[in-house]
Amino acid sequence: MKVMTVFGTRPEAIKMAPIIKELERRKIEQVICVTAQHRQMLDQVINLFEIKPDYDLNIFKEGQTLTDITINALKGLEEVVKKELPDILLIQGDTTTVFAGALAAFYQKIKIGHVEAGLRSYNLYSPYPEEANRKLTGVLTNFHFAPTLSNRDNLLREGYDEKSIFITGNTVIDALKYTVKDDYKFKDEVLSQIDFENKKVILLTSHRRENIGEKMEHIFSGIKRAVEEVKDAIVVFPVHLNPRVREIANRVFKENEDIYLVEPLEYEPFTNLMARSFIVVTDSGGLQEEAPALGKPVLVIRDETERPEGISAGTAKLVGTEEENVYKNLKELLTDEKLYSKMARAVNPYGDGKASERIVDILLDKLSK
Ligand code: UD1
Ligand code: UDP
Q1: pLDDT tens digit sequence for 298-319
Q2: What are phi and psi of 301, to 5 degrees?
Q3: How far apart are CA 73 and CA 97, in angstroms?
Q4: In this protein, which residues make up the domain named UDP-N-acetylglucosamine 2-epimerase (predicted)?
Q5: Are 364 and 1 in contact (CB under 8 A)?
């Protein structure tokens, strides 16, 4: 069996890494191809996990549009897929690299395994373009690796054959096990000086396309107000490299001593920072999965989420994108101890850390010659 993995952005690399490691452990032939839709943020992850791509399409360009990513990834992948002719091509998640990867495999009639299949918000414009990417990829997929039961149910409702759907858990939980350590020491100057005992550290991340613009300004203004009113609260915000996000963050948060804007962190310090934080405020998909596993309450600064499991479990709350709602919910969670302890429970609706083993087992079962 020859397995080809294709990925291009930070979160895909984090969630594909445990599968690559598992394939390595079992000495299964594999070909690793990165589109490099992200450059620096991808390299941070592949260096940490010591992944050496066989192909690097290096498509990243500053200010890339969705069309740029789709065309350049598809064109580069055509050559690689034709040359390697794997038994299966694996993609992970909902980025434009994922959709291009699925299409490239389909055009060569190569089987497709979609890792993290079946998540749905049922609004094509939120998350944008990810909801569409996930659906478009589903149509071309032979093996749907659904993290949860409700992801599987979404696929069944859309008419996919139940024999093609496998509940595996999310590989993000497998990845977390590599990095979070009780005795972890930060090398970064800002992080190593944070007083986690006496400060309520809010870990903030934000990058969604549909929020960029006024919504993001309103979200940040709401966070700023709450932090200014709660004495022992501080924010650490590793700012995404998207220049549009950086401009809004720098403008809204300027000159506030309790809000630390830092560069994107490597995965290891980042997850250890999350493990020591008080609250997570995010529009990220991955963080909505990691924070409940680490017992951190999450405020989801989005209008919709395709990850309702954390909300049902009571550790995450969808607070929307309006300033007043963000402010009120954050202030309440910072000051209401009862509410805080109700939300700060380690629950893990997203997996048990064995998703990558399961996925490789299924591949061996279905594809071994
Ligand atoms: C992409 C994915 C999104 C995923 C996110 C994870 C698409 C359409 N979007 O969004 O689903 O949640 O990655 O972070 O696939 N940049 C750099 N260096 C990098 C990465 C990004 O400078 O290493 C800057 C560039 O200016 C780039 C911009 O960020 O143009 C946006 O990057 P892009 O990959 O187009 O979209 P993301 O918003 O990162
Ligand atoms: N992450 C990281 N460094 C950071 C911010 C996030 O390593 O500075 C990790 C985080 O732990 C998670 C993933 O990146 O696993 C989430 O990526 P992102 O929010 O960019 O994308 P999404 O999950 O929304 O697609």
Answers
A1: 999 999 999 999 999 999 999 9
A2: -90, 70
A3: 7
A4: 22-363
A5: yes
**Nearest CA, atom 9, ligand 2:** 267
- Distance (angstroms) between ligand 1 centre and the Cα of 43 equals 13
Which of 112, 114, 131 has its CA nearest to residue 122? 131
Query: Rounded to an integer, what distance in angstroms lies between the CA atom of residue 303 and that of residue 292?
Result: 19
Amino acid letter, 328: K
- Residue 369 is predicted with a pLDDT of 66
User: Which residues does the annotation mark as catalytic?
Assistant: 94, 116, 130, 207, 209, 240
Q: Would you state the structure tokens that stand for residue 116, as one six-digit string? A: 């993290």
In the chain, the domains with their CATH numbers are 3-169+353-368 (3.40.50.2000), 189-345 (3.40.50.2000)
Q: Is 132 exposed, middle or buried (0-12, 13-18, 19+ CB in 10 A)?
A: middle
The predicted structure's pLDDT at residue 177? 86
C-beta of residue 59 within 8 angstroms of C-beta of residue 72: yes
Q: How confident is the chain (369 residues) per 10-residue block, as mean pLDDT?
A: 98 98 98 98 97 98 96 98 98 98 98 98 97 98 98 98 98 94 93 96 98 98 98 97 98 94 97 98 98 96 97 96 98 98 91 97 92
Give the ligand whose atoms come closest to the C-alpha of residue 41: 1
Q: How far apart are CA 10 and CA 314, in angstroms?
A: 27
pLDDT for 255 equals: 85
Structure tokens at 214: 């006024």
Strand segments (E) across the chain: 2-7, 29-34, 55-56, 88-92, 111-115, 143-146, 165-167, 200-205, 233-238, 259-262, 279-282, 298-300, 316-318
Per-residue tokens: 13: 């690399």
Query: What's the predicted TM-score (pTM) here?
Result: 0.98
Report the Cα 314 to chain-centroid distance in Å.
20
**What are 26's two structure tokens?**
């079992």
**Contact 226/334 with Cβ under 8 angstroms?**
yes
For residues 284 and 207, the answer to whether their CB atoms sit within 8 Å is yes
Nearest CA to ligand 1 atom 19: 38
DSSP β-ladder status, 200-205 and 165-167: unpaired
The tokens of 337 are what? 């101890």
Q: What's the 38 CA to ligand 1 centre distance in angstroms?
A: 6
